[in-house]
Amino acid sequence: MNSYPSELLNQLAPVMFVAGLEDLTLQPPQTPTRTTAPQDPFAALSTRLREVLLSQRKAAIWQPEKNRTFKVLLADKDMRFPPRKVEDPQTHTMHSPLSPLTPTSPMYPDGLISPFWIRKHTTLVPAVFVIFMRIYESPVQQPRSPLDVPDADREREREVEERRRDTELASDIAQRKKHMNEYGVKLTVVLLASRRMLDDPALDARLTFIRRQSGLDPRAALFVLSPVSQAEIGDFVRSLQDALYEPAVEYYTNHSKRVRRKRNKHSQTASSYPLPMSPIGAAGTTPRPLRPEGWTVRYEYKMACFAEFRGEDEIALKHYQDAYSSLLIMFGSTAILPPRTKRWSEARVLADCINVKICKLYLYNNEHSLALAHHNSHIRRFADFCRGWGVGEETFEFWAWLARQHRILAELLEEGTKSTLKIPSHFRTPSQTAALIAAHTLDSSTSQRTLMEAETQRLLGVNPMQALQHPGFYYYMAARCTERRRERFLSALESETATATPAYATEKKVDHLAVMVELYTKAHDNFKHFRTAGNQGHDRFILWIVNKIAETYCMQRKYQVAVRFFERIARTYRHEGWTSLLLPLLLTWYQCAQQLGDMELSVRLLIEMLSHGAGYRRDDPDAMQEDLMAVLKSTVPSSTNKPLVIEPSESEPILESCIVFWKPDVNVGEAAPFQISLTAPSGVSMSALPFTTLTVEFSADIPPIVVQHSLGDNGQALSQVRKIDLGLISISASPQKDKLEARVVEGVLRWGPGHTVVLAGALLSDTPRTLSIIKVELTLQEGSWTIQFPLQLIKPRHRHPIISRWLVSSQPPRFTPITWESYSELHIHHRPHKIQVSLAHHAPAYLGEEYPIVVEVCNTDERELDMVMDVLLQPTEYDEAVNYISVDDQRSSSLIKGVSLGVIPPGASLLKTIYLCSSGVAGDRTIDISVQSRSTATPEPSSPASPSLSADISLVDKGETLQTLVVSAVEAFKLEHDVTYRRSLRPQPGPSDLRTFDADYWDDRDGGEAIVASTFVCSGPSSVAVEAIKLIREDGAYAKVVDCSVEDDTDVLAEWLPGDEFCGSCRVSLAPGDELEEDEGIPGPGAYEITWRRVLLDGERGSPSTSRFSLPPLRPPTDGLIALLDTPPIARLHEPITIRLTIRNRHPSRSANVTVHLETEATDSFVVAGLRSGRLPILLPGTEEQILWRLIPIECGYVKVPRIRVVDRRRAVEQAQGGQGPLPDSESEADAVRIVDIRWDVKDASASVKTARISMDDSTRKGEPIILVVP
Amino acid sequence: MPPQLRLNAVAFVSPQNHPILIRTFGQQRQDELKYHYIAHTSLDVIDERIAAAATSKSTECYLSLLYTMEDVAVYGYITPLKVKIIIALALSDAVVRDADVITIFRALHTAYRHSVANPFLKLNAPADGVNDHASLLLAGSAQWKGFRRRVDEIGRAVGAIPPGGI
Question: Domain named Trafficking protein particle complex subunit: which ranges (chain A) (predicted)?
């Protein structure tokens, strides 16, 4: 920005001159009578006023805000403005002293516009002139006493004095006013008065007098101010400017009008404008006067400036554009503006400055793409012009100019972004774009153009040239252009053709590199400033620019700084694997290191470049190592006693290394082969590097292996894959004695491009341990240099997936890939113990018995083993199954741990019996048997709680043999119950029988009796000796066992063979109470208990076991209305017998209306005495009625009892009473009541409540009651 | 008809920001480095854009114009599996239609997918697939020519001259 005159760039604002403030500060206190205040209030006031006025507007390029403020300059009270016009002595016309028509003007005769003109309007002539003056104040007369009358004389004297002073003031003002009027400048007077004065009633009159006398304008020309606070000063200044802004705008409008008039007049008379003709020969010496185009530029530029003064940006923009296009016309012709003249360069500066102004005005309005479009076209047009002028792209002038253009745009944007300018984002997600469009349609006030622009952008895309970016990009461009400028300059320097030009002389003074550093630094700062907060330090742009800065420092020979920069950059490039970026950086870095004489660093960098292999000087793979060897040979390290260690932590390792153990686990005394393959990068040769040794270090106390370089067959070329045999490395149990002795092997340690050296060996250990290779280190010795390369053995870098591979054969080389996981570690174990565990038992096990399982442990190993057994009974999935195991005297429901089997010598075996006792449900039982063996050769770990326990465990020679046994447990007996029920035959107590209320009354009216017949089956596969069977009674509230058949039966106590059955029965009296839920059975009132022993295969009997079988739950059926017929089974001929029919109403709620018919027939074998047909009294629920007949048999044999019919008429009666349906036709319509012969009274358990109420008896057994009549 | 786009360079960058393939078209050798830098610095802007897209829950692959620098305009694209594709177009003072750029990106993405689908890339990789992205990087290595060929074909279709002759 400094390369252009600031007048042409700065934002213009109305100018206000302020005078009279200095006088006040300089004036000594006027009234000596008053007590000397620490500071005169007026002096303080003026100081503050000056501060406020001067600070409100600074000269700056970017000032888009329109807040009606002035650019304030302090001026002398008596200053005179420069003359508006001077007389041309030749033509005797009046022209401005800056006009090209004035011979004394710097613009004479053909200048366009000069910064002086702007300066004139910004510093010499204001729009408004404000003058601060003190109004006279007569000293205060302190009344001597309150009673004093005002002294009339004194008053009069005072008035006269005031009038005199005011007149002086007014004439002073009038004189100034006159001068201002000539220039059209508004004069405003601020009268300073004390607070007391403001309250003086005479003040108004005095002010009016002064204004009239001085001829000031009636509006905004006279202010009165008294010393006030800071805030009030601000208010005053604001109101002062507000009042004066209009006149200022008017002032500049007048200027515009004047210029426009001149322009119009000029354009009309342009053709006839008197052009002083000059002799043709003197054309070169006498400059020609300004062309009409020039005048247009001049006028348009002036109008633009005046519009800018007024703050009318749109108008200013238009005039600037007009001026710019006229300028382009002028540049278009070398006749108008001959290149490389003073006027030409002035015009170029003007064009550049107008371009900046136009861009700025566009940017004020947020029209980024228009601004950039203008800037780009400016660059393009002038680049074209430059070619025509002979300052094209091959000259440093061109690049200097281009750099200046980019820089000024960057600076403009930087200024802008500091205040109001926002850099737009060119990335919008679809939703954002939609929201933007919606916002545009809502906000109709937005100009149509921006809406269109957004629409176009959404539909089509952006013109990348017109996408505004943050100033860092433009600074970067400027720096790049400066770089080119320097290149061109240097080439010009070589050719010495351009050294004569004056441009060269100035160019020579330019420190290009400093400018580049400055520009890059600015770009760097901007990139840093504009990066998003979420970007976690990955500032790749910044790195790029830092790289550029470092390169520039290199050129400046500031190597120390550059090296620091390179260090920082290289870290990211290495980390992200951008080798292509890293290599040029390393090269430059290496050059710096060479220049600095830092040999260690040079070596490090060379080695890093070497390790990156291809990509560096592709044509010559040997170049790198030659460089390195040259360095090593010609220099000495800074300290010879310490080797230089190249850590591979950050950079690529010089050799890619890969360690593979063929098997991850081996036994003690078994050789474990391993390979270490070291591969050189392809594309670069390091065959000349004199590696001397390669050290392989193992974990634990294994002595390291050193491979020493030995030149094998000298003449033969090195093959692509070579193998160095390390041999068998056996690790002795006591490693202490030869700990330091390293094994030395010889091999060729030279690598051509892409060569692989495989170190193959095998490890043999007699103690169990975990082994790995912890370090592989190459050592290089050359002269006084000793360089160590520890190779990276941890997981290979993720971006270079090294495939672990195993060299199968070296001639021809063939690898097999290692695809399993743990190939980098070797675990050595003890040999497993050889133990046989066999189990003997006779399945299935019976529930309830102690089932023996014989475990035979046999030591088939050649070692003596100490064994311990654990037995675990797995829990079953049946909840009620309670199982346990017992070994010796230990008993557990789950785990028996640590049953010692003692030390078993080789070949010996040991038997142990485990008893399994299962109960509950039949099913499989699972037992895990674990036999742990420990070799007696190794000592037991001293203390299990020692901290090194985990380390010790692998060392103890231990083994474990597992056996899992599944035993199915079955029941020894199966039991089936068959239950039948009988009605109670006892007479029923009446509904109000008090006995039934006794607590111990056994009410079996409903229940009757149940007969449980139980069948025991010996269901198991082996015989069982039954020792006892008994029924354990558990009489409950609703049921009790009356008698049982097994109790005194001794026949059953014998040996039962599989399939044998035995039956027992018992009688149970039932008294289901009201509380009993009907669908819930009565629990069986007892259980059979069988004590038995299993008969083993050899005839022995097992341990006694007991099985228990509960009686089944009982569900007695219930009756409704029932008739029970009781007949004797046998009768004698002609001897009367009695038959009894009992009709019970067991219905819980319904009464019964019962009729009984005895139907005799002629064929009957009986003579009957009793009721033939009749109705019983109504049977209430729970009552019964008995009817008796006497029968005399008259026939022998099985004879039928006469047919008895019992009918419940209740339903029929109900229907008749209801009158709903037709009356039953006959009695058959009524419900017949079932007659049960109590001799056959057997019922099944009630299947459900419903059926129990209706059907009571098995219909198949139904038959006529029959009596045997004997003679 | 908008003016033909001129493709100067194409870069594929892995989700871990490692370069997979950088291909320049019709460039002098010393300028190739510039495109490596451009690809690398673009990652900054891409990160920024991804963050912006994440906040607005956008799943747009096309990241639009990243920046312009010197004589190129740089455009970015991110595949659903976070592979970044960057192209550098020669800067010309004309509107670049997003649709055209997206077409190029889609073609490049397809080329990438076809190349990564090569089962031989994983021939020697461990079966567990922990280093899965390593095989993606392998696709761009000199050993495998298919990817380069496909990218060059696209470049040729756009009118660029691939390095190493027609």
Answer: 343-611
